[in-house]
Design goal:
The chain has 345 residues and is of the alpha/beta class. 38% of the residues lie in helices and 16% in strands.
Length: 345
């Protein structure tokens, strides 16, 4: 049905349509109709970060920033769902309009700016969630928190979401919070990772359960920067990496309407850049650290390409806008066929 609905959805303001789509998904869930949106794939269990995922295809952060729609979204067949990005205090994000479609290239540009209701609201929402699958929580810093105090924001979120998260992702790579990407480099990165690792071990001892902590990186790092990031992540002993966030590069969409809008570019034009960054990261990163591949997945072949580049799990978001719920099952089945051929990744 989605190919028939998409022209109608694309007539409206993208952010308004996004909000309404989530409301419709919630209504369908309450009425017991959510299962009609997509055929759930058969399980394809995958182990990573000490967790078992029902299948290796997840929802990327950004669609459900406040963790308010997990039960409805779970019907689309995801093996895991990542919510956020969430910050310690509520913030409105950047002024609207801040979300733009580039349908000629199956792309999206967003400059949302970590709009969310704050970590306390997200925790309450996840405490009410009934879905038993793996939920990741993506955490960030408030816009008005200086980078010198960023660790404080990340630690606050880490402690608050610990009991409701299956894993936690530290987002230091969004292009839509001024200066955030500076935390990916040098001493700021090492200090941030050290503080997070110390808190992770302390919370594991205090709460009686360990939570994997991952870091999400940008696709725009050059070779030297990527090598340095990989070294820092390995030295800190992070549990995993999410590769990658959106890009500020516009070479793939130059000349198109909205191509000049500020923000991060996602969708099909991101695929090559993100997958190459993933491949280079895998070459530099300790082999024991798993990677979630995200960025530009619009087909099962794209998902398999992420695994071939070194990912263990994959995530979709923008591809769902253009392909609809069927994309999830297509990706799972493509990965299943790869496994049946004897290729684990």
């Amino acid at each position: 049905m989605y190919p028939l609905l998409r022209p109608l959805l694309f007539c409206g303001d993208p952010e308004t349509v996004h909000e309404r789509s989530l409301a419709w998904a919630d209504a369908a869930h309450r009425l017991g109709l959510a299962g009609l949106a997509a055929r759930r794939p058969k399980p394809l269990p995958t182990r990573a970060f000490g967790l078992t995922f029902e299948n290796p295809v997840g929802l990327a952060a950004g669609m459900d920033k406040n963790g308010a729609h997990v039960d409805a979204l779970s019907h689309l067949g995801f093996g895991f769902i990542e919510v956020g990005t969430v910050t310690p205090r509520p913030q409105p994000g950047n002024p609207r309009p801040r979300l733009f479609r580039l349908p000629e290239k199956q792309a999206i540009i967003n400059r949302m700016g970590f709009n969310n209701e704050g970590v306390d609201a997200l925790v309450k929402n996840l405490e009410r969630t009934r879905w038993k699958g793996v939920i990741g929580v993506n955490i960030g810093k408030n816009k008005d928190t200086p980078n010198d105090h960023a660790l404080r924001d990340y630690l606050h979120c880490l402690e608050r979401v610990w009991d409701v998260a299956g894993y936690i992702v530290v987002n230091i790579s969004s292009p839509n919070t001024a200066g955030l990407r500076e935390l990916q480099h040098g001493d700021p990165l090492r200090a941030l990772l050290a503080g997070l690792r110390e808190a992770q071990e302390r919370l594991a001892a205090q709460r009686g359960a360990r939570r994997p902590v991952l870091v999400k990186i940008a696709p725009d790092l050059d070779e030297a920067a990527l090598h340095a990031v990989a070294s820092a992540l390995g030295a800190a002993g992070v549990d995993g990496v999410v590769a990658t966030n959106t890009t500020i590069d516009r070479s793939e969409v130059a000349g198109l309407r909205h191509a000049g809008e500020a923000g991060g570019l996602s969708g099909a034009p991101l695929y090559g850049l993100a997958t190459e960054a993933l491949r280079r990261l895998r070459a530099h990163l300790d082999s024991s650290i798993p990677i979630i591949g995200v960025g530009g997945i619009l087909s099962g072949a794209d998902a398999v390409g992420k695994l071939a580049a070194g990912a263990l799990l994959v995530q979709c978001y923008s591809g769902l806008v253009y392909r609809g719920p069927a994309l999830v099952r297509e990706c799972v089945e493509a990965i299943r066929r790869r496994r049946e051929q004897g290729v684990r990744r």
